[in-house]
């Protein structure tokens, strides 16, 4: 008999931790009060409101600046071990520099941290989740090397001010989305659309800024504060449309190197620097465009060494998988661009759709990504720093529950069968919030938020119960009520 093992793992290992994530601009609101300055998302949504699907913005969002005690109550109900949230740079340092510190902003995060401590919820703090002070953007943002200094100064301030309360730091959330979507495209603020150019300037400065913050923490703060510091890298995982087609298999690998490897290779490999295929492809395309130097600059030996090894854990944000269907130039891609530098055509004809166009449900892709991270980066310790599902906000969110269950099950499989070192899991997100250019039209939360009501009432969805049961028992909930009525056994 064929003996494929379908071991059904349900229990999480000892010490595995569960959390939930948010980001400052998506929940806080209070955009122009208590000393906060304008950030790039305030600027984009106010100057070009049509760029958000439902015309909403982050002015009030979930009003967490005023309602953070409600957030803490929800976190307590979910029973999470940790809460991943981000600091608003423009709230702490209104000029973006350390020449002005905003005491009300500083106090806000102390209040939140103290409330979390009271409930024994560990903070995981992201320094940068996309909301750059507009004044720094006016200087070019991450396209300007000065950002290396400004980010280090900002990190220095945060470590000094909060380091005795925070033991887990994340420098950047999803450098790919920052550099490609915001500098190389118009998908995120500041929507520069400098395709094939600004995206690569950004990655260069961002990786240096990350490394400088890491070394600062490592040398100056870690000895006293004893915490850890990492980066969260986003993945769309690329699979070959036909796994038996060796050309497609090779192309999918190229796509994964361009997507995940762009930021992971410089930090998590022995060799360091950008993936070789990325350097080669961009150099070759740049030559044929008649440029005098490649659009993607290589790191020199100093920076290769300086960036290597600068993350205590590999933080992975994962949502979805796309298919690579063939070589060639994407008809929708601009030229030059990151897309054309890959030279692959992709397709979304995989898995069940969600409320987000880019997002199909493919749990097997998640397992493959995790195995690939193990083999590509020498089996690093991993935290899943985001994973979640979008719909339109229903309270009986069976599809979200199924998404979580299948992805958590994939984690258990790769831990037990493949020895991947996944140490913790973060669900995106605590409550429906400002989903960037999708506004509130795509909802990822455990709690529904009514944005037509100034009190921003939050209502637990069924998935909140599911997660609560998971964190209480440290195993996948088996309760029939978490299945769609049509799929229940009794
Ligand atoms: C992340 N993709 O963005 C962000 O970190 C969150 O702020 C955001 O709300 C959440 O995921 C949901 O979108 C992503 O194309 C954007 O794979 C795009 C992708 C993944 C994550």
From TrEMBL:
It comes from Leptosia nina. Belongs to the glycosyl hydrolase 1 family. This is Myrosinase 1-like. InterPro entries: GH, GH_1_N_CS, Glyco_hydro_1. GO terms for biological process: carbohydrate metabolic process. PANTHER family: GLYCOSYL HYDROLASE, LP05116P. GO terms for molecular function: beta-glucosidase activity. SUPFAM superfamilies: (Trans)glycosidases. Homodimer. Coiled coil: none annotated. Keywords: Glycoprotein, Glycosidase, Hydrolase, Signal.
